[in-house]
Amino acid sequence: MTTGAFLIALAAAQAQAAPDRIEIEPARFTLEAGESAAAAATVLDDAGTVLEEAPLRWLALTPEVVQIAPDGTVTAVAPGEGRIAARSGNVMSFATVIVNALPVAALEASLPAAALVAGTSAPLLVVATDQGGGVVAAPALSFSSSDETVAGVDGSGRVHARAPGQVGISVQSGEALAIVPLAVRAGDPGQVALEPATARARTGDVIRFEAVGAAALYPEWSVGGAGAQIEAEGSQGVFVAEEPGSYRVTAIYGEGRAVTGSVEVAPRIEEAELVRVGRGAAADHHSGDTWVFEGVDGRDYAYVGTYMHDWMKAWDVTDPSAPFLTDSVQLDARRINDVKIHPGSRIGILTREGASDRRNGIVVLDLSDPAHPAILSEYRRTVPGGVHNVWIEGDLVYAVHNGTSDIHIIDVSDPANPDEVGRWGLPPHAGKSLHDVIVQEGYAYLSYWDDGVVMLDVGAGTHGGTPTEPAFVSRLSYPVGNTHTAWRAGRYLFVGDEIFPDDWDADAPIEARGYIHVLDMEDPENPREVARYEVPEAGAHNIWVEGDRLYIGYYQAGLRVVDISGELRGDLYRQGREIAILKTIDGASTVPNWGMTWGAQIHKGHIFTSDLNSGLWIVKLVEGQRIIS
Fold first, then answer.
1. Considering just the CA atoms, what is the radius of gyration of the chain in Å?
2. Cys-Cys link to 309, which of 79, 188, 285, 493 (CB 3.0-4.6 A)?
């Protein structure tokens, strides 16, 4: 065979070896919540030949319902219809996973009031739990009344008071049963009016409606139009719109009794531009977290950690338009993820992971000459397994230890001799993973990955906690997990996910996912999610709040600024609350033209952020114009 013929044959063989289709078995299957099963995928070429060596990647398209490991193990997370995919080259195939809820073991039911006036109605509030105490979403429920003439109950669980008397309202799911007593009183709701009857708002503005009459009313609320929503909260209807338009609000407060109102919603227009001011470029290594501060010499500095690199970089940013590198600090580490500065600016803390001797811990810096920081001491004794993040509160360092997934509290009042003085963690269990901590106004917020966000009293005094002996306040988790970071601002706690594909590579484009959950902390023992901010096809990372602005490093979607003024409900992204964007994209970076914005910090009117691939960015928010760059 000639060389030319051989090459032609080889090219034909390679073409035939390209993946043409993928067969997933089973293509559709059913799991109970929490159950796992194996999926298998076969890659074939266009002739139907099995390609044993073809690369294969599994993807969970609905991670809130079902997740999948690299070996094809499918795990049901929450009830619903989930989708998984197998990919080889440019070929993809899909399978459906139906996740059933666990059987209901117990029901708790209540009405908003022990007595209703005849002619009014109220919702039966039901919480269903499984044998493990977990809440069952969307359980199958049936309702009944002991006396339909006194009060009836419809299929949605709404109770209609009809005539004076006593009645029991029952709710059942399988063998689980709950009965709620109700007294119906004589009377009449009288002339009912909606307050306000008319309203004007912008998208994202929350309006609280109430049906007011001669008796307490607990209406069923609805809104005409697909661009808005209204939710019942006690006696009120909480309205918010994502799209401008005219909406009619209806409150049904009894059988055949309703009152209506209207809302005119205008677009939410807040124009602003993020303007690049300066750069501390780094194209030869990955960058980590950034902390900006005024040094004891009166100049401003930005310290930048690194990933897969053993240097911390010190930048003078006194002139934000012309930052310059003053020095670096080398550690025995593969990752200097976090940098924090003591409030007195005389010492700093570096976290260390991946030390060659596997003894990591934290490093204390002497900042008497902030342009040239020097290592003062190290603390490794109780945190050898790597420290990912820290927060400094007074003379205490709250350190996230990878080895225990606990918070280790380290006293640095004598910075040459730091020592552990306290510790707190969730009970050990498979999958326990602590990622981040922040302390604000006497409370610590721990981002506990799949265990959600944990709130601790560390000196607020509400639950008996002290700075060195934290006390548990509450915990909230959600099915998708990956709780990565948190920031408290007023009544809200902003909690971010971090979701990377299983086969991510820091030296290649990373398709990150995850979003910001907005939790209402008005009752700190019972936080509840009320809103979200999610940029499509991108992933959230670190956050910062100042005033009524939320600043987010949204990885490949860049630096985002969001208006969080007023009450927050619903989808903040779709409401148009996002006011400015800047993509931290640079051709001269470790992954050219692929930004991975890390976070944000406000210092003296400028926004400082780092990019995993391209180093330090200094930006200013200019109100009054909006340009996406």
1. 28
2. 285
